[in-house]
Each structure stands twice: as structure tokens, then as C-alpha cells.
Design a protein that fits this description.
98 residues; mainly alpha; 53% helix
């Protein structure tokens, strides 16, 4: 199980998964179009360098994220308590319905 499957209550799992897929896969056609335009404008080598640098820079905020401190999915509720600002945390795994 991933954190994405563990943190939300069971009744929201479908919505969370659909939202994740939309955010992760939805921009792919636009990214391909932008990547092709960059390769035409800058050349393939420079476009790949620019894309690689931007992907690296976009991952830097994760270094300050509490997510990297989570070592076990079972402890996610405790480890991410300060990170989740929804007013209430879901029930721990052992308290959830089957």
C-alpha cells in the first residue's frame, strides 16, 4: 500500500486515485507538445538539458517535505500529522472497516 492509499478514508479512495491519475497523466500531451517545440527552437540536446534541469528544480521542495520522514506506511498518520491540514486525520489502519 502507498501513502496515497493509506491516508484518505476508504470512501474517498476512488476520488483520490482518479485525481492522482488526472494530475499525473493529464498534462502529458501538453508536455509532449512543449517538449517538441523546445527541441525545434533550441535543438534536442539543449531542450533535454533544460527539461532535466526543470524536473530537478521541481523536485527540490520535496527535500523540506515531511513525507521523506515516513518510514512505514502504518505510521503515516503519526508522521504526517502536521502535514495534513484537513481538520481531522483518517482513522488508523487497525480502526478502519474491513
Amino acid at each position: 500500500m502507498s501513502l496515497r492509499q493509506t491516508i484518505p478514508p476508504r470512501e474517498f479512495l476512488g476520488s483520490v486515485t482518479a485525481s492522482y491519475r488526472l494530475v499525473a497523466l493529464g498534462p502529458s500531451p501538453l508536455g509532449a507538445l512543449i517538449g517538441g517545440a523546445l527541441a525545434d527552437a533550441l535543438g534536442a540536446k539543449d531542450a533535454l538539458l533544460l527539461i532535466g534541469a526543470s524536473l530537478t528544480a521541481s523536485a527540490l521542495p520535496l527535500l523540506a517535505s515531511p513525507i521523506k520522514r515516513v518510514r512505514r506506511v502504518e505510521n503515516a498518520d503519526d508522521d504526517l500529522r502536521a502535514f495534513i491540514a484537513v481538520g481531522r486525520l483518517p482513522a488508523p489502519l487497525e480502526e478502519r472497516e474491513g
